[in-house]
Amino acid sequence: MIDDKPIGTALSRNLGSSTAPGEATEAELDRLITRRHDARVSSEGEGQAEEMWQESVRAYEEKRRQMARLEWHAFHCGQAARHRAVLESLIAHHQAEAEKYRNQLTKEGAA
User: Fold this and answer.
1) Is the distance from CB of 16 to CB of 22 less than 8 angstroms?
2) Helices 45-110 and 21-43 meet at what angle, rounded to 10?
3) What digits encode the pLDDT tens for the residues 23-74?
4) φ, ψ (nearest 5 deg) of residue 18
5) Distance of alpha carbon 66 from alpha carbon 58, whole angstroms
6) Pairwise CA distance, residues 60 & 66, whole Å
């Protein structure tokens, strides 16, 4: 005990009480500053910065969509060319097989 007070009494005091008015005043000042800051942000420049940022995001996303369209276009053009090559070779193969069997039929019919 020191001065008839238990050791650690100062550490357990209630900072929000009337015995610590400085803490309550500081909390009120923090609320005032926050309120004014929020009011300024909604009415002044940070709103413009937010709009500019949103516009830049929209422009970036549109550019990205345009690039995706170009890539899909290139993909489908390439796929069409690949399918055309495969189908043309399949058509040629089946025409050759049909010709072979027709020739066999005509040889059998002539014999």
Assistant:
1) no
2) 60
3) 778 888 899 999 988 888 777 767 777 889 999 999 999 999 999 999 999 9
4) -70, -15
5) 12
6) 10
Amino acid (one-letter) located at 88: E
CA distances (Å), 42 to each of 29, 47, 54, 58, in order?
Answer: 20, 6, 16, 22
Q: How far apart are CA 71 and CA 58, in angstroms?
A: 20
Q: Tokens 């690949």, residue?
A: 82
pLDDT at 40: 80
Token pair 């014999």: residue: 111
- Average pLDDT of the chain is 84
Q: How do the domains of the chain map onto residue ranges?
A: 19-110
What CA–CA distances, in Å, run from 64 to 40, 47, 50, 78, 91? 35, 26, 21, 21, 40
- As a whole-number percent, the residues of the chain with pLDDT over 70 amount to 79
CB 16 within 8 A of CB 23: yes
Residue with tokens 């929209």: 58
Task: Enter the tokens of residue 106.
Answer: 């005509």
Measured CA to CA, the distance from residue 66 to residue 30 in angstroms comes to: 48
Beta bridge partners of 2: 5
